[in-house]
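User: Structure with NAP, tokens only please.
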Amino acid sequence: MSSKAIIVTGAASGLGQAAARALADNGYRIAALDLAAIDAAALPENANSYSVDVSETQAVDAICAQVAQDFGGIHGLVNCAGIVKGGKLVSRKGPHDAEAFKQVIAVNVFGTFNLMRAAGALMAENEPDTDGARGVIVNTSSIAAYDGQIGQIAYAASKGAVASMTLPAARDMASLGIRVVSIAPGIFDTPMLAGLPEDVRSALEATVPFPAKLADPADFGAMALHIFQNKTLNGEVIRLDGALRMAPQ
Ligand code: NAP
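Assistant:
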């Protein structure tokens, strides 16, 4: 698949940026999607930047068509765009903010689905390789899909949905020669967690059995790359978490 084009969403930062680097270092060309245009210095060589909200249907259709035109086709997708909004189902302030819940679902669930549908349709137009393969899709779930903590109900629901879409998506795409695999990261050292105070970061690190630290985004990139390279991986959600099982709080 080397030298073929891969869309990476959320590529401006954190896990998306690490996936884009790992794939680019191995010869893939990258279409880096994020809310805002990405500074060229933050992009790997052979990458183009596109600005789009993954939850916008028509904008995503248009960007995917543009990417296919710019690169002469799309052979992969890594969905990393995502947001977190905390809040308890009911707290002293009252019921959970309904709009916040809908926003998390719109970006994390619909955004993932939206890219899979639009980019997947374009991958289906590829000539199959000698194994009958036309493309690979990698989604980003979270261990919150399984061990959702207090105050994570919206995020856990969204990441559970990403995990649950993996098998039916793989089954839907099997006849097209497109594999679908999700990664469920534990806690990684990205801007999403950078805002936490040092004592909270240390406490989080201590909850990971081994290695007891916030994980290096490069390990996520390595996993994304491996999924592209391993032709048997399909329809699975892979925990990448140092054996962390999150406590209620
Ligand atoms: P991050 O550094 O905040 O990166 C997320 C990127 O997605 C940002 O560049 C963000 O842009 C972009 N984005 C947000 N909403 C978007 C939208 N509607 N359309 C397009 N792009 C959008 O977070 P990260 O830690 O790398 O997380 C990447 C993914 O991994 C997320 O899905 C997250 O839920 C998941 N994850 C992370 C961890 C972790 O420990 N870090 C653990 C489990 C799962 P802006 O910055 O402009 O908003």
